[in-house]
Amino acid sequence: MEIEYIDGPLLKKMILSGAQFLEKNKDIVNSLNVFPVPDGDTGTNMSLTMQAAVREIKTANTDTLEDISNAAANGSLMGARGNSGVILSQFFRGFAKGVKGKTRINTKSLAEALMTASDVAYKAVMKPVEGTILTVARESAEAALTIAKTEKSIKTFMEKVIVEAEKSLDRTPEMLGVLKDAGVVDSGGKGLVYIYSGVLTSITKDVHILEESSIEDNGYTHHIEKIDGEIKFGYCTAFIIHADNMNTDKFKKTIEEYGDSMLVVGNDSAVKVHIHTNHPGRIIEHALETGQLSDIKIDNMRLQHRHEVFRQNEEGANIGNKEEIDKYGFIVVTMGEGLIRIFKDFAFVHVIEGGQTMNPSTEDFVNAIENVNAKTVIILPNNGNVFMAANQARDISDKNIIVIPSKSVPQGLAALLSFDLEATPEANEKTMIESIKMVKTGQVTYAIRDTDYNDLKILEGDILGICDDEIKSVGKDVKQVCIDLAEKMVTDESEIITIFYGSDITEKEANELLEELTNKYEDIDIELYYGGQPLYYYILSVE
Questions:
Q1: Nearest-CA neighbor of 263 among 276, 250, 278?
Q2: Considering the entire predicted model, what is its pTM?
Q3: How far apart are CA 513 and CA 537, in angstroms?
């Protein structure tokens, strides 16, 4: 018998099946990187975002259509990784908006919800670009509205929508020249097609949905330094409220007097609450007056704090001056033992370990923000694919958050060096943004596939020299490619070259490169540091 309506249990099965299908094919999505370098992570980011939605769905108290869609929206919001993951989370947010108040939907309502999902995703991007996942979402949703006029079967409807999504995906290289040059379609759009295909599979087959995820979370690590001094509010209290037509603004006002670091996010039926307080019982009582609670967690931060301070004192860590820490705090994204140490040498810097292939989630940033005891928190993403998650965390937080658009480690360091403790947040934001424009970033890595790029013939395994998102040098020898790259970056105005060597380069090899560059550029100061970063043999900074 043909299925003509989707209810809560079926929607749950659809989303879980979509997540599984994407996970199985994430490596194909990852391979659709414009540059043939080993940092294609769109598939991984979208899959981890879907998995966050799945975890939230599995904790939902009921299987109503509205609750399942809201759970997917809330889970993907906090678990969003990378720009593609953030866009996907906004897609789910729009879908939940589209089915609000409905107990079941037909093809017409489903098409309208997909259109709303596309509209919300577009609005989440400051400068939407056609030829991306946004285009595939919009064009397939527009086609869905037409298909729904004559098609009542959910199965046949989804089959036709997928055909239109694939046609849209095939057109993406014609919309984005970089895709055409690289000979690939848009990776995010491909990921969305896989999700849709998984949704269809849940209708056509008796799909076995795993009870526990097989998706690894890649072990994203937070290097958070605790601040010495007394903690004003000692209990970290978190839970989820399940209620009908909940007024989140009213609840915020009710509990804000009891603590700080407050986070209240969700919709009118399920809301995540986090607050630091001395009276968790009172918070819980107020919440119980609003609805039912789940996932209640209360941690004694004073005990945790004393343990951390003791550990840091044992290690001789520089905890810093509390008065200065309270004025500003930094959250920096980087990876590699040496680079982490370099950033942590600055005062009041907190590091989230991540970057290429390891994009932190929105929740990672939210958690880091909560651990920074500062009036103004400045985030340095140091990666273009981390911006949207950082901005999404900024929008959720009640703190004063500034996201500096640093796209690389050299830009992040330049921004930190330009920071003035005595300046206002507005002045610092302006100065730091200007400072990153003065830095050229070079990266030396290897090709993961054969391709042509700007008249350069690239073979798998070739060494690539990349400067500010363009491949400038190709060769077989790491040192020579690095020298060639430096030559294309240095100008008569250049004064400083900084080299960070990665985990696959020995100190001897790095010093040999330093010697050659020093002889070549006698009038330029050249500095060498151990970065320990994976994937990239060298990172160069030219100022």
A1: 276
A2: 0.73
A3: 12
> Measured between alpha carbons, how far is 357 from 385 in angstroms, rounded to an integer?
10
Q: Where are the alpha helices (DSSP H) in 205-277?
A: 248-255
Would you list the domain boundaries of the chain?
8-204, 228-310, 320-438, 440-542
Which 8-state DSSP code applies to residue 12? H
Cα separation, 261 vs 274, whole angstroms = 7
- Digit-coded pLDDT (tens) for 232-271: 677 778 788 888 777 777 888 888 888 876 667 666 667 7
**By three-state DSSP, how is residue 375 classified?**
coil
Which pLDDT band holds residue 314 (cuts at 50, 70, 90)? Answer: very low
Answer yes or no: are the C-beta atoms of 8 and 62 closer than 8 Å: yes
> Residues 448-462: pLDDT tens digits?
888 888 778 899 899
Crossing angle of helices 409-418 and 425-436, rounded to 10°: 140
Half-sphere CA count of 496, side-chain side, radius 13 A: 11
CA–CA gap between residue 208 and residue 20 (Å, rounded)? 10
Cα angle 213-97-238, degrees, rounded to a multiple of 5: 55
Q: Which two tokens stand for residue 299?
A: 């941690």
Is CATH 3.30.1180 the classification given to domain 440-542? yes
* CATH architecture of the region 228-310: 2-Layer Sandwich (3.30)
Q: 8-204: which CATH number, 3.30.365.10, 1.25.40.340, 3.30.1370.10, 3.40.50.720? A: 1.25.40.340
In degrees, to the nearest 5, what angle opens at C-alpha 499 toward C-alphas 525 and 383?
125
In angstroms, the CA 368 to CA 381 distance is 13
